Amino acid sequence: MKHFSKLFFISLFAILSACQTIDHNGQLITLEEIKEINETNPSKEELVEMVGSPTFVPDYSANTWYYINRTSCKKVYTPKTVLSQQVVMINFIGNNAAEAKLVDTIENKDFTAEQSYTKTYGSEQTGIQKFVGNLGRFNASTKKNKKKKK
Q: Looking at residue 150, what is its pLDDT?
């Protein structure tokens, strides 16, 4: 019985460590769809019906749409790795698509987000801002004033 339980746990660990999940995020646009977009020059509404809404529209140019597709996998006890990434850029003149092209393709590369490059500022409060924001917040007199107003 002792050997059976060891064998059971070893086989269970082997099965669980082999499990992986594959995630597809974004819109996948095939080369045939890119060719069709370039041939037909659809309007923005027709393009949304054809391939879906864009992943990213930059603030500085509403006439450029990006469709980004990323495939990643995660195995048990390991971090998520990116298998492939595809970026398609579509430029518009007026309301019709002028050009669709494959901008970037990454296959089987491990890349991670570097905190020093991807950190966003402006959402963190300094110690002084936190202190000033909390002044009077936990004051008993403000609780009484709120009850009187009701």
A: 54
